[in-house]
Specification:
CATH class of the largest domain: Alpha Beta
Number of helices: 21
Structural class: alpha+beta
Largest sheet: 5 strands, mixed
Number of strands: 16
Shape: elongated
CATH topology of the largest domain: Nucleotidyltransferase, domain 5
Helix content: 40-55%
Strand order of the largest sheet: 3-2-1-4-7
Radius of gyration: 39 Å
Distance between the termini: 127 Å
Strand content: 15-25%
């Protein structure tokens, strides 16, 4: 606990000038007695020790101290059981309070201040900044932070995961922002960097080693429990939390990263340089820039590559969403190469599909050409396509179709009618109208249409725009002119025997 100078001065004045006792000072200033004693001890005026009253634990004090020296982490509950077996009859609460003052404290370790040369080292770490709700998916908001050890220049980039491809992309974008890379990059025990560590033996992630070889830097793990070796990036993360992210409003991830870039180049670069108060971080970075390693001419291929299995339907599942592929590639194993913007599907070296990447959950991202090719190949797929579209737009349609099938209705006609209502009124009103029709136990499109019209009239909305039918559909709905049936009557009369002959018989 840090004791402010004004509080220390007030404690010393009351003790020296006013002759107040330690307890009186603590009560009046609303501080603990140990705080008052510490201030007096630091000023060379230790408080007079009051005589200690005998305690029930006194006969067991030597035993407790010897046990704690041998087993420093032994719990107070176990110690209480041991002394209770030896005759101690005090309360467990008082015993825990006494043990807290008797337990040996580890000696505080001092660290040397490390100084690095310009362009020599940088420190890297991930930081968690809560979650973002994207549609039905709750994604973690992770910050990739890199700090140049000499100039303290910060690079900040937010991702929606902490996967290896995002980790390497953060490095690549940091190098571009710096105009080069440091010779040594320091990491702690991140799984993206260190897969296994036993003593001094370290097994690095092979993807990081390939990336480091391409950019000619040395990945180096920091020693365990050495706060001074990676303290600059940890302080930078705390600085990001307090000075950038706190009370920050943003629209989406792109907006947040744009604000992060402006903050790194502005406020974070204009702060005082710790090594020389006359310079800013940006001034020190201009000196360090020329000492950084030059970037390679050939860019490192970035992106997450995974193998995916295509089932009976022309979709591949990647990161909680389904993406279409050509129907000619069903029942095959393909490769997905994805970055933060797009996901591409490959069959060997041939790219067969490309889609914008979605961070939502349970979505179907479709290329209409893939679906149209399947529909033309298999006409029966059209009906299933309509049912699938209804299921995603209005999930209650499945229950309505099931109830209609139980009553013997034509499901194809009902599906087509519901699709027309979906195109005319939209998904949300259709879902509400289907729910009302099911509540009335009338699983028919007419009941859904009446509910939609009733809701429209209650809201005072104009009738929906009439859809223009295609030429082929309009031809199917054209009125048919009935033909005269007199000729058919003559044929029927000619084929029947004479009624008079039957009477004669």
């Amino acid at each position: 606990m840090v004791i402010h100078a004004d509080l220390s001065a007030q404690i010393l004045r009351l003790y020296r000038a006013e002759r107040w006792r330690v307890g009186t000072i603590a009560r009046q200033l609303h501080v603990h007695r140990d705080t008052v004693r510490r201030v007096l001890a630091q000023a060379g005026d230790p408080a007079p020790a009051s005589p200690l009253r005998p305690s029930r634990i006194d006969p067991y004090r030597d035993f407790v101290l010897a046990t704690l020296v041998k087993f420093p982490t032994l719990t107070a509950a176990r110690l209480f059981t041991m002394v209770h077996e030896r005759g101690y009859r005090g309360s467990p609460e008082h015993f825990r309070h006494v043990i807290a003052g008797m337990r040996p404290r580890p000696a505080a370790e001092a660290f040397l201040r490390l100084r690095t040369l310009a362009g020599e080292a940088a420190q890297v770490d991930w930081a968690h900044f809560g979650h973002l709700q994207i549609g039905r998916a709750r994604r973690p908001l992770m910050a990739f932070v890199m700090v140049l050890s000499y100039s303290r220049r910060i690079f900040l980039r937010f991702f929606l995961d902490a996967r290896m491809d995002s980790f390497l992309r953060g490095h690549a974008e940091a190098f571009i922002a710096y105009g080069g890379c440091a010779r040594v990059l320091l990491y702690d025990n991140l799984k993206s960097a260190v897969l296994e560590r036993v003593g001094d033996a370290v097994r690095f992630n092979p993807e990081l080693l390939k990336f480091a070889a391409h950019h000619c830097f040395e990945p180096r793990p920091v020693a365990i429990a050495r706060g001074n070796e990676k303290g600059r990036v940890e302080r930078a993360i705390r600085y990001v939390r307090d000075s950038f992210f706190a009370a920050r409003a943003f629209i989406d991830l792109d907006d947040l990263n744009a604000q992060a870039r402006a903050w790194c180049e502005g406020q974070a670069s204009q702060r005082r340089w710790p090594e020389d108060s006359r310079l800013s971080v940006n001034d020190a970075f201009e000196v360090e820039r020329s000492s950084l390693l030059a970037l390679p001419e050939r860019e490192y291929p970035l992106g997450e590559r995974v193998a995916v299995q295509v089932g009976k339907t022309p979709y591949v599942r990647f990161d909680l969403n389904d993406y279409t592929v050509p129907h000619t590639h069903v029942r095959r194993t393909l490769s997905v190469l994805a970055d933060d913007r797009r996901m591409r599907v490959f069959d060997g070296a041939q790219e067969v599909a490309s889609h914008p990447r979605s961070y939502d959950s349970g979505q179907q991202i479709e290329d209409l050409a893939h679906i149209q090719a399947l529909v033309e190949r298999k006409r029966a797929a059209h009906a299933h396509r309509g049912t699938d579209r209804l299921a995603h737009a209005a999930p209650g349609a499945l229950a309505l179709l099931k109830a209609a099938a139980a009553r013997g209705h034509n499901l194809g006609t009902i599906t087509a009618a519901l699709l027309r209502l979906l195109d005319r009124y939209g998904a949300a009103p259709l879902q509400a109208a289907i729910g009302e029709a099911l509540k009335r136990d009338v699983p028919h499109p007419n009941a859904v249409r009446l509910a939609l019209e009733r809701a429209r009239e209650e809201q005072g909305l104009p009738p929906p725009t009439e859809l223009r039918l295609s030429e082929e559909v309009a031809r199917r709905d054209a009125p048919v002119r009935s033909h005269a049936l007199a000729s058919y009557d003559q044929i029927v009369q000619a084929s029947q025997p004479d009624q008079g002959d039957r009477r004669d018989e």
